[in-house]
């Protein structure tokens, strides 16, 4: 089976090679005749082209062309290799106004945003205070009536009393915080002492 396939392939290769040999013979025999025919047919045209090339060469003087080339080379040699350029930029009246306007808008926007945040924070605090007073008014109506009465009679003294009471409360809160901190430190010191004693 394999021998038959090999023989078939070998015969095909022999046929291809014989075909190439025939074609090469045709190319070898007919190509020189074709070239000879081509040269005979276009001889006059080629002669005309050659004569025109010669006349064109005679029109231009080689020495003159070489002289012009030398002059161009000298001119190129005198040109500096690096040309320094001074570059300056200035803002015109329109661009200055635009930049100032943008900066002013940015500052105004920043101030407005900061003010809005501050007012929002204050509004929240006032709402909390109002809600707390509402709770007192709802749960302890007598106390709220007393506060409202004192506010109408002598608001300055009530404000002073309130400020003193607030300062006292803040002082008490601060003292409690210090006491709690001292207790924590004392407890930590005792724990450390117990640990040191137990390590011995």
TrEMBL record:
Coiled-coil ranges (or none): 3-66, 158-199
Sequence intervals crossing the membrane: 98-119
Keywords on record: Coiled coil, Membrane, Transmembrane, Transmembrane helix
Protein name: Uncharacterized protein
């Amino acid at each position: 089976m394999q021998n038959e396939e090999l023989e078939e392939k070998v015969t095909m290769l022999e046929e291809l090679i014989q075909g190439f040999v025939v074609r090469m013979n045709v190319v070898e025999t007919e190509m020189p005749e074709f070239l000879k025919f081509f040269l005979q047919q276009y001889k006059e045209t080629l002669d005309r082209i050659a004569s025109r090339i010669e006349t064109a060469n005679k029109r231009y003087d080689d020495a003159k062309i070489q002289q012009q080339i030398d002059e161009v080379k000298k001119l190129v040699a005198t040109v500096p290799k690096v040309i320094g350029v001074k570059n300056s930029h200035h803002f015109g009246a329109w661009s200055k106004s635009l930049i100032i306007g943008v900066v002013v808008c940015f500052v105004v926007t920043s101030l407005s945003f900061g003010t809005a945040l501050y007012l929002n924070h204050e509004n929240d605090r006032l709402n909390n205070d109002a809600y707390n007073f509402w709770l007192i008014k709802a749960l302890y109506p007598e106390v709220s009536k007393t506060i409202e009465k004192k506010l109408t009679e002598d608001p300055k003294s009530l404000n002073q009393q309130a400020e003193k009471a607030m300062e006292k409360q803040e002082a008490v809160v601060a003292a409690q915080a210090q006491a709690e901190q001292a207790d924590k430190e004392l407890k930590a010191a005792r724990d450390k002492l117990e640990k040191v004693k137990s390590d011995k």
